[in-house]
Structures are given as structure tokens and as C-alpha cells.
Write a structure and sequence with these properties.
Length: 130
């Protein structure tokens, strides 16, 4: 039973394992957000590619809330490039955060493994006297 196993661990190891779970949850959320941004970047790249093929006088519309607003080709391209630049920055930031979280997790795992292998589990038990 996992609960009884956790309770037999020293408090520092339990705290490390709980921290590891928190970091893993944060990492999963971060990876999901990064994946969403990367998917949007692919959509933007496709849109830019298609718009660049259009003639300068082509009719384009941009969704703004529940309305479609007419925009010219240059304006549409600039809006997409601005959004792409922002998303690229977000992805780079998330990649750095991912790297930091993975390092923290690795450090904790190393510490827990060394504590578990070092025999410090149960080291606080009182010697039997008789």
C-alpha cells in the first residue's frame, strides 16, 4: 500500500517526493502550453505562406470577436508576423522553464536515490536495549 510506504520514509524524503510530484505537474502543464503555442505557430506559418501567394488587391478578412473586418494583404501579413514573433518568444521562455524544471527534478531524484541507497532510511531508529 503506497500510503504506508510513504509514512515509513523520513520526512525529508517525503518532502522531496511531494516536491517532485509538484514539479512534474508543473512540467506537464508547461509542455501542454508549449505544444499549443507550437501548433499555433504552424498555423501562422501556413497562413503567411498562403497570403504571400495572393495578389496585392485580394480581399482578406480578419476575425475580430464576432465580426469579420476587411484588411489588406500587407496588414494581414504584418499582424501574423507580429503574432509569430510573440509566440516564438513564449516558446523560448517555456523551453527555458522546461529545462529548469527538468534540472530541479533531476537534482531531487539524485538526492532521494542517494538517501535511499545511503541507508539513511531507518537511521533514526532507537537501538534495542535489553
Amino acid at each position: 500500500m503506497p500510503g504506508s510506504t510513504m509514512s515509513s520514509l523520513p520526512p525529508s524524503v517525503r518532502a522531496d517526493l511531494e516536491k517532485l510530484q509538484e514539479l512534474d505537474t508543473q512540467l506537464q502543464q508547461l509542455l501542454l502550453k508549449k505544444q499549443q503555442y507550437e501548433a499555433e505557430l504552424k498555423d501562422i506559418d501556413r497562413a503567411i505562406s498562403e497570403i504571400e501567394k495572393l495578389t496585392p488587391d485580394a480581399k482578406l478578412y480578419k476575425a475580430v470577436g464576432t465580426f469579420l473586418i476587411s484588411v489588406n494583404k500587407d496588414q494581414a501579413l504584418q499582424d501574423l508576423k507580429d503574432r509569430k514573433e510573440l509566440l516564438d518568444l513564449h516558446v523560448k521562455t517555456l523551453a527555458k522553464q522546461e529545462q529548469m524544471l527538468r534540472k530541479q527534478m533531476s537534482d531531487i531524484e539524485t538526492r532521494v536515490n542517494s538517501l535511499m541507497q545511503g541507508g539513511s532510511v531507518g537511521a533514526g531508529a532507537a537501538p534495542g536495549g535489553g
